[in-house]
Amino acid sequence: MEARRLAILCSHLNPPGPNPTRDPTLRVSDCSSGSSGDGKVESSTLQNDCVFCKIIRGESPCLKLYEDDMCLCILDTNPLSHGHSLIIPKLHYPTLEETPPSVVAAMCSKVPLISNAIVKATGSDSFNLLVNNGAAAGQVIFHTHIHIIPRKERDCLWASESLRRHSLKLDKEASQLVSCVRRHLCSLPEEQLVQPS
Predict the structure, then answer these.
(1) pTM for this one?
(2) Between β-strands 61-62 and 71-75, what pairing exists: parallel, antiparallel or unpaired?
(3) Is 147 labeled as ligand-binding?
(4) What angle do CA 4, 141, 35 make, to 5 degrees?
(5) Model pLDDT for residues 159-178, shown as the tens digit of each residue
(6) Which residues are catalytic?
(7) Its catalytic activity?
(8) At 155, is the pLDDT very low, low, confident or very high (cuts 50, 70, 90)?
């Protein structure tokens, strides 16, 4: 598992393909979020060894699809399908739990716009929206990001799609799970539970 993570990280650091200085479609991201007015991101908001932070600072190349003041969307350098893209916040948050709701909302608000363009451009039928949050879930780069993975009918991308699902048993175990989740939600500060109007 560790070797796989290292291989994926290396593929993000050294993407295969054209030399960025020769390919006019390859852009280096310029970062405006968290800036001090000169277009540079404050070092306290980014990590020196994070590949996504390097992209945001303009130190690593990327194929940029979209950018605004909160996030950018790039093509994944190790795609699961043609057009596999990543929406990345411009400030460094290692996991989804550590990412402020306003940043998550900004990223998610771009999904319809970006995914629609990707689906049309790739001739796909649909897409998966995915967040690998934590090592056990397959997160390799610890900078929050959302995957947009274009799909075509019968592409057999996920082996689990062929697995039969089991119906939820409405038993004591399920009731205990519901109670436990609700207890955890009730223990959160009220401002985390209030929905914006």
Answers:
(1) 0.71
(2) unpaired
(3) yes
(4) 160
(5) 776 667 778 888 888 888 88
(6) 145
(7) adenosine 5'-phosphosulfate + H2O = sulfate + AMP + 2 H(+)
(8) confident
> In this structure, what token pair is assigned to residue 7?
């291989």
Amino acid at 22: R
Q: For the segment 87-102, what is each residue's pLDDT rounded down to a tens digit?
A: 999 999 999 999 999 9
Cα 78 to Cα 53, 103, 123, 147, 193: the distances in Å are: 18, 25, 20, 12, 36
What ranges make up the beta strands (E) of 43-190?
Answer: 61-62, 64-67, 71-75, 85-89, 126-130, 146-151
Number of separate domains in the chain: 1
CATH number for 73: 3.30.428.10
Helices and strands, number each (H, E), in the chain: 6, 7
Domain boundaries, position 97: 2-168
Q: Answer for the pair 52, 45: CB distance below 8 angstroms, yes or no.
A: no
Closest CA to 113 of 57, 155, 71: 71
